[in-house]
Amino acid sequence: MAAAERAAPLLTQRSFSALWWGQLISILGDRLTYLALVGLLAQHTREFQDARSSFLLSALANVMLAPVLLFSPFTGAWVDRWNLKRTLIVSDLARAGIVFLIPALYAANHHMAPAFALVFVLFSCNVFFLPARSAITPEIVPPSQLLAANALLSGAGIVATAVGAICGGWVVDHLGWPTAMRIDGITYLVSVVTLAIISYRPSRHRASLPAMSWRGYLREVGDGFGAIRGSSRVGLALTALAAIWIGGGFLHVAGNQHIQRAASVPGMERLGLLLAALGVGSGVSTWWMNTRGRRLPQPLLLGGGLLLVAVGLVAFAVSSRFAVFALAAFLIGVAAAPSFVLCETLIQEGTELHSRGRVFSMRDFLIRLLFLPAVTLAGWVTRAFGTEPALLLCATLVAAAGLMVFAWGHRDPALMRDPSIPR
Fold first, then answer.
1. Residue 422 has pLDDT above 50, yes or no
2. Sign (positive or negative) of CA dihedral 115, 29, 165, 64
3. In this model, does residue 413 exceed pLDDT 70?
4. CA pair distance 310, 390, nearest whole angstrom
5. Exposure b/e, 81-99, CB count within 10 A at least 16 = b
6. Tell me, what CATH number does 242's domain have?
7. Which of 136, 142, 293, 407 is most enclosed, with most CB atoms within 10 A?
8. If you count DSSP H runs as helices and E runs as strands, how many of each does the chain have, helices first?
9. What Å distances lie between residue 177 and 62, 114, 116, CA to CA?
10. Which residues of 366-402 are buried (b: 16+ CB within 10 A; e: fewer)?
11. What is the SS3 assignment for 320?
12. Among candidate residues 132, 63, 125, 73, the one with its CA nearest the CA of residue 98
């Protein structure tokens, strides 16, 4: 890159700006899809009054997880060989078509099985899209701007969460979940247009890779595992991310029911407002990390954040007041943000260019491998003991992960140094 481009603010750089705007719009649609799917289940179970509610919420989470668990360990080697920009565009085109189909298919038979099948295909596209998005960022921004780029991309997700949650809850309650799905399909198409603007040339290593063979393919898959085992930065990031995903699994099952059962009038607007509070908290935290928080060691930010997430979960569990829910959501957003902003950068810095697709695919596989038993356990505990014990158990698990993150910092003194001091 030319010196002028390296010095230019990220959002004035054509390629990064296109990626940022595309992700802002696409993630906004993703939030609509999540609320629409929960709205579909609410309609199907009479506002979660049916005994099947916990089972179907767990089933939905498992259907979203299954493609990652089945395919992620094996797709990274292909992502490392493919044109990343083309991979992103094709994935978004496929996702647009699928979300348009879900309302039509459910309207035709009013059964959840076909809708779940389409959700499975939708999240199979994510298996290619997510590692490609994470891998392309270091190739279109200067290394000195990588942390800021990830902070801005995380900020796009936060803004999209806040706006999409508020608008999505209203859309689902007043216009119906099928309308929310169709809006999401449009956002994927807009994302395709912005991704096409990115100026990107595949790195030279892709052209020099040998032809794929079964033996070579399996060796490259194994290299992805080896890259994870050999990097303390990647290990630290995965520990923090795993805790956040475990918390998300419990909130998906027990949290949704806790909110709806405490409401005088059940609906998606309350959930949307809470997701917005979560997004505002994440936005405040992301801004602070990219300014004053830059000097703090990463294990302290990550471990301390997880302990605060546990505090927020306890407050959420023991109350039935919406104001407490909102404050807890804001606190959880503040405390969870480091696990998204810092972990992306830690993995990018801790892996080589030629293996990033595999490492990010393995990341998706491993953290969702933990998410699967989390939602299953959450469903069982919620059915057996209620939402409050399930959420308190979740808080305990997240706090334990926070202590593990502190242990990572003591194992590798380099992680405890001031990140703002050049190496």
1. no
2. positive
3. no
4. 13
5. bbebbebbbbbbbbbbebb
6. 1.20.1250.20
7. 136
8. 16, 0
9. 21, 16, 15
10. bbbbbbbebbebbbebbbeeebbebbbbbbebbbebb
11. coil
12. 125
Report the alpha-carbon distance of residue 341 to residue 352 in Å, rounded.
19
User: What tokens were used for 325?
Assistant: 């829910």
Check: CB of residue 217 under 8 Å from CB of residue 330. Answer: no
Query: Above 90 in pLDDT, residue 352?
Result: no
pLDDT of residue 392 exceeding 90: yes
DSSP state at residue 47: T
User: Is 18 part of a structural domain of the chain?
Assistant: yes
Retrieve residue 221's tokens: 């898959």
Q: Give, in order, the Cα–Cα distances in Å from 306 to each of 76, 212, 230, 248, 374.
A: 29, 41, 24, 13, 17
DSSP string, 169-199: HHHHHHT-HHHHHHHHHHHHHHHHHHHHH--
Question: What mean pLDDT do residues 210-220 have?
Answer: 54
Could you give the number of structural domains in the chain? 1
Are 357 and 77 within 8 A, CB to CB?
Answer: yes
Give domain status of residue 69, yes or no: yes
Report for 43-47, 117-121, 149-153: range of highest mean pLDDT: 117-121
Contact 260, 397 (CB under 8 A): no
Distance CA 197, CA 107 (A): 37
Residue 265 has pLDDT above 80, yes or no: no
* Domain assignment present for 255: yes
Per-residue tokens: 120: 């499975």
Q: Give the chain's mean pLDDT.
A: 80
pLDDT of residue 186: 92
- Residues 72-96: tens digit of each pLDDT: 777 776 777 788 888 999 999 999 9
Q: How many Å apart are CA 217 and CA 220, to the nearest integer?
A: 5
In this predicted structure, what is the pLDDT of residue 171? 86
Average pLDDT, stretch 114-126? 91
Domain annotation covers residue 5: no
CA distance 20 to 169: 24
Residue 32 to residues 17, 87, 95, 328, Cα–Cα distance (Å): 23, 23, 14, 22
Tens-place pLDDT, residues 360-372: 777 777 777 777 7
User: Is 176 exposed, middle or buried (CB count within 10 Å of its CB: 0-12, 13-18, 19+)?
Assistant: middle
Count of all residues that appear for the chain in the document:
423
Q: What share of the chain is helix, strand, coil (3-state, %, to 5)?
A: 85, 0, 15
